[in-house]
Write a structure and sequence with these properties.
This protein is α+β, with helices and mostly antiparallel strands. It contains twelve helices and nine strands. The strands form two sheets. It has a six-stranded mixed sheet with strand order 4-5-6-7-8-9. It has a three-stranded antiparallel sheet with strand order 1-3-2. The radius of gyration is 20 Å and the shape is globular.
Length: about 300
């Protein structure tokens, strides 16, 4: 059975014809967009632009084509009166899932795609949290694309992939690997929206300590907070952490999360660039949480 036949299994002739048209029109970048949307559940127009494009007009034009072909589905979250309109949010459509599956020589089921699951994020109370996580990595991609410093997002694993690997011990919001100017940092990412008690946020670090003990690998934890006051209050609870931790507040200004905004727990000096955290704990031997079987990079 060919890849196209496997991906089209159970579809009507009309759907198969639409899939054939879609496959003929998809570019390599389109496949990367569909893959990214599928892996990270939902991306806004602005995030897709930061990761894959430069200007807004080509971004909107290409996304419009992918939407008309059924590769992507879009929605706009409700906002209260006077708050303006939300940007378009994009999730993988049925035709996009079929095209991805055919491209990988697997079935849609093997891809792990279900339409109802894909659009469930639209109604989820965790939508804002997911968008915040994706903002962080989209800003890193944007900086890497415009920077002259040889910066790269080498890994960006979503929460569900992290849960599959480490969920019995720790449940990070994401896992990343960042390189800049020859320095490389692996990290677990915690996106704080300000809704959880700080005692609960700090308690998560015990889970990461357990993970480090179980694996023999020490990986820093980055906590991304919504404001300076909350960051200061959290840092008061980080004086006896057993894993390397650094904090910063949400920003897209300047170099964004790649810039000199990170402060290791217990430190009081100047803030560091993200890549500089690779040498911020000289007394610890930092490693990659994926030093085992190599995973797919993004």
């Amino acid at each position: 059975m060919t890849p196209a036949h496997r991906a089209q299994l159970g579809q009507s002739r009309l759907e198969s014809a639409a899939l054939a048209e879609l496959a003929a029109r998809l570019t390599e970048r389109d496949y990367r967009i569909l893959t990214c949307v599928h892996e990270h559940r939902v991306l806004t127009t602005h995030q897709i632009q930061k990761i894959f494009f430069t200007l807004p007009q080509p971004t909107r034009r290409r996304l419009g084509i992918l939407h008309r072909l059924g590769a992507l589905t879009r929605f706009r979250p409700w906002k209260p009166y006077g708050a303006g309109s939300a940007p378009a949010h994009w999730v993988l459509g049925r035709a996009g899932a079929a095209a991805l599956a055919a491209n990988r020589n697997i079935t849609v089921a093997e891809l792990g795609y279900r339409y109802d699951t894909a659009i469930a994020i639209c109604l989820s109370s965790r939508l804002a949290h997911q968008i915040g996580v994706n903002d962080f990595f989209a800003d890193l991609h944007a900086y890497a694309r415009r920077s002259q410093s040889q910066a790269t997002v080498r890994k960006w694993w979503p929460e569900r992939r992290c849960v599959e690997l480490w969920g019995d011990l720790a449940r990070p919001d994401a896992y990343g690997r960042w390189t800049e100017n020859g320095r490389e940092l692996d990290f677990f990412f915690e996106h704080d929206t300000g809704t959880e008690p700080l005692t609960k946020v700090a308690a998560k670090l015990n889970d990461y300590a357990n993970l480090a003990e179980a694996t023999g690998i020490t990986t820093p934890v980055l906590i991304w907070l919504p404001g300076t006051a909350r960051e200061a209050h959290l840092r008061q609870r980080l004086d006896r952490v057993e894993v390397p931790v650094a904090t910063a507040t949400h920003t897209s200004l300047g170099d964004g999360p790649a810039g000199p905004i990170w402060l290791p727990a217990g430190a009081t000096g100047n803030r560091l660039r993200l890549a500089e955290l690779a040498v911020a704990w000289p007394e610890m031997l930092l490693g990659s949480a994926t030093d085992g079987p190599e995973g797919e990079e993004r």
